[in-house]
Amino acid sequence: MLANVARLSLAAGCALALSACVTPQEQRAMDQRQCYEFGFETATDSFAQCMMGLSQQRTQIQANRDMQARAQLAEQNRQREAQQELYKVLSIQRSGDKSFPVCGASISGGMDRNTMTWYGPNCRSR
Q1: Are 9 and 2 in contact (CB under 8 A)?
Q2: d(C-alpha 89, C-alpha 3), whole Å
Q3: Is 54 exposed, middle or buried (0-12, 13-18, 19+ CB in 10 A)?
Q4: What's the pLDDT tens digit per position in 44-72?
Q5: SS3 letters across the chain
Q6: pTM for the whole structure
């Protein structure tokens, strides 16, 4: 039984890697072939459970990938916001320097998100 679970997990991982390149009908045929190769007879409860197990594993793996992608995006957003806050603080610290006009949130203009710098009237040009 444990060997079947290990083989089922391995098959699900391989099937998931290939599933991005196949149609749902092709995926079902691959799952059926895999369960048959595991020794399950078609049209039995154990065959149906094998098919369901492969599908559930693919769903879980995709959910994990989605969660990781969301976490990575949230971390990138957090880092970007921290960098913007740092630029804002540095801009405020330089506000008394006449040789280096400062742009910030209080000046009409905005932040160039590509260069992470403030822009607006009387801002230092690069």
Answers
A1: no
A2: 59
A3: buried
A4: 999 999 999 999 999 999 999 999 999 99
A5: CHHHHHHHHHHHHHHHHHHCCCCHHHHHHHHHHHHHHCCCCCCCHHHHHHHHHHHHHHHHHHHHHHHHHHHHHHHHHHHHHHHHHHHHHHHHHCCCCCCCCCCCCCCCCEEECCCCEEECCCCCCC
A6: 0.51
Burial class of residue 57, CB neighbours in 10 A (0-12, 13-18, 19+): middle
Do the beta carbons of residue 51 and residue 31 sit within 8 Å?
yes
Placement of tokens 């196949």 in the chain: 22
Residue in 7, 6, 69 with CA at minimum distance from that of residue 34 = 7
